[in-house]
Each structure stands twice: as C-alpha cells, then as structure tokens.
Amino acid sequence: MTDHSAYLATADALIREHRTAQATVTLFDRDRIPLANQQVTVSQRKHKFLFGCNGFGTVPLVNHELEGPAKVWVETYAERLLGLFNAITLPFYWGRFEPKRGHPDTQRLLKTARWLVERGCVLKGHTLCWHTVTADWLLELSNAEILETQIARVRREVSDFAGLVDMWDVLNEVVIMPVFDKYDNGITRICQELGRVGMVRTMFDAARAANPAAVLLLNDFDTSPDYEALIQECLEAGIKIDVIGIQSHMHQGYWGVDKTLDVLDRFARFGLPIHFTEITLVSGQIMPPDIVDLNDYRVSEWPTTPEGEARQASEVVSFYKTLLAHPAVEAITWWDLTDGGWLGAPAGLVRRDNSPKPAYEALSNLIKGEWWLDPVEMVTDGEGRLQVNGFLGEYTLAWAGRTAPLYLDKKGTLSVEVHFD
Length: 421
Known about the structure:
- It is built from 11 helices and 15 strands.
- By secondary structure, it is α/β, with parallel strands linked by helices.
- The chain has 2 domains: 4-44 and 374-419, Immunoglobulins (Immunoglobulin-like), CATH 2.60.40; 49-370, TIM Barrel, CATH 3.20.20.
- An 8-stranded parallel β-barrel has the order 3-4-5-6-7-8-9-10, surrounded by 5 helices. A 4-stranded antiparallel β-sheet has the order 11-2-13-14, with no helix packed on it.
- α6 links the parallel β5 (122-129) and β6.
- It is globular, with a radius of gyration of 23 Å.
- 39% of the residues are buried.
- GO terms for molecular function: endo-1,4-beta-xylanase activity.
C-alpha cells in the first residue's frame, strides 16, 4: 500500500514536471526593439488544464427564469462556480432536452453556452446517447426509427452548438447499455441490435461528420477490464476516440491513491488523453458498500457533517494531486457544486446555502493558489528578457499602460517572443 504522505510529495514534483513551463520571454515594442530594463507586470489569466464542474444551475439564471431568493441563490451559485472553474459541463439528457418530440430545448442552452463562453469557459455537452434519462417517446418507434432518430439527434446538437460546445460525451455507459434491465428504453434496444462497438462507431461517425473539430469522448463509470476491452475493440475497429472519460462517483468512499493510480495506469496504456468526467466525494455518511447500483440508495436526509467536511477536504486534495501528477489526465470535472444534487448526497463543494465547505477552500488554494501565478512585478534584462515560471495557461504582460498575451502551452523550457503593438 502506498504511503499517502510520501506519495503526495512525489505528486507535487510530478505536477511541476508535467504541468509547468520555464519560459525565457523576450519583449519587443511595436518597432521590434527589445524592451531592455523595463518594469513589467505578469499575471495569470487561465489554466490550460481543464478544471471543471457541471453547471446546470446556470441555465435558469442566464434565461432569467428566477426571481426573489431563488434568483439571489443562483447568482451566488454562479459566482462560486466561475470563481473556481474554467470548464463547464452542460446538460443534454435527451428526455429533458426534448421531452416532446420535435421541441428541443436548443435556444435556452445556446443562450447559456454563449454566456459561459463569454466568461472564458470551455464547454462540454453531456450526453448525446445514453439509455438513462432518454426520451420516453422513443418507445413509440420501431428500432430502425429509433436508430435514425438517435443519429439525427447527435447531428443536430453537435451542429447547432458548434463553436460554443466543441466537446461531447458522445456515449455514456456503453458497457452496461445493451444489458441494462431496470426498465425498457429505446437506446438499449438499438444497442442490443448494433452491439457495443457498432453503437460507438455509429454515434461517433455522426458526431464527427457534424463537427470535425469537436473533441469526442467515450464516458463510463465502469473501470473494470470490461471498459478496457470495449476501448480496445473500438480502437482495433478503427474508431477514433479522442478522449477516454472516467467517472468516479465515490459515494461509498474515497478510492485512495493505490486504486486511483491503478485506474490511471490501466487506461493510460491506450495512449489517449483521460478526462475524469464526474467526481463525487461526500462530506457526510459514506454509502454502505453492499449497494451495487448507487441509484438504489435512498435515505430521507443525507446531511453534511463537520467531520465529513474535514475528510472531504483532505480527500479532494489527495485525489486532485494524484490525477494532476499523471501526464495522461487533461481534465477533472467535479459533479454538483452544491449539496443535495444527484441522490441528494452531501457531495457539493459548497453547502445547500452556497456557503463554501473546507473542500472548496482547499481546491481554491490549489487551483488559484499553489498552481497559480499571482500578479508579479518583473524587470527585463539588457536584452529585453525576463524569466516566467508558471503553470501552463494564458498570461497577461502589462508594460507602460499596454498589455500583451503570453501563452505557456508546452511543459519544460521555452523561448517565447511577445510583441507590444
């Protein structure tokens, strides 16, 4: 078993190795003359790494659907959300996006997407094809019609949102999809006919045709060899998967460093980027281990506790550092900013009243503290150079009332020129 404290020290070193750049930056004025011996302010604006959260609560806010206390609550929610995260997942569950056939919720989501992009967020749509929360009216159709309609739905959403939402969980939970038996649904029906690999190929082809520039994910909660086998079969069949999505709903307790590293190493062998797409760590009672389907756990109340909040904060730091230390991981998405979301769990980084928990503060201290460069005054040398060491991302250089962007987009030692026009 890995020594937790010792590993975190190792993780810090690996994070610096994989996530930072040491850049020699040469500054020029508009006449291409080096800015020698000049005072410059360097400020970080954005991480390259995607620190994400689902942002479903922004939809009613942006569309002005709330008043009074509810409006105040969601405004605070959005402030907490955007104060920490640079990547937001938006909801495209078919049964809610198009509960009545031919009447999709496109305009509300487009308005929300524009609002978030204007605030610097990278967006992902979740999800285009899933057997759960799918449209009930599919059951009125034949299997051939269901397939045709599902393909059209993929093309429509990916096309309509291109330029705003250019990242998609194309299929969700394909491992269980053809054998799902809790209730009848149209997606399981067609997956049984096509098979898992055929289903993935069909939906990825439709999404790729609609937006060739989109980043397409296969996403699953199943971290067993079954998911590995599915990915292997898809790749051998020539299907281009851009990113492997891994869910990590830890209602039954933190995985710990050893399991996390095992999952990372097993899925990194495919040579594809990994996104941890749905992270849950609770700050209350841990769900009993004998629950097989998390959806089966029902309690009248599931409160957060001071002891649980302290545990959650410690686990958040451990999990994020373990993931960030692995070079294959390119995104981490927390699931439910506030308590009382999925399953009613105390799984938020903030409480039901939007007050930050220790976990929110701990994560903020990493993303906007330990892994961030606060504004710093520097002076160029006689050849207009200065040394900027920081996490990969976007920076602003300010000199003599002017600003210019600086991009640290590759780890290690860099030489960069910046021109003030």
